[in-house]
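Why does residue order matter? Because the sequence determines the fold. Keep that principle in mind as you read this record.
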Amino acid sequence: MTNNTTQPRIWPNRSSTFELPRLHCYRCAYEWFPKTLKAPKVCPKCKDTRWDVPRPLPKLVAVKG
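Structure:
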């Protein structure tokens, strides 16, 4: 993929163009351009419904010594 974060999209029968954002899955690190303006429900690669939610950081446990 290219380093661009948006991709120009031209719709048929319309004279205007607009930019679609590059989406990123926090679960499998897949990046893609959406086909529509609505946010997808699942990641197209891993099919996870929480693709847009970052994983929580693991809690660190203090070692007593």
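The beta strands are 6-10, 17-21, 23-24, 31-32.
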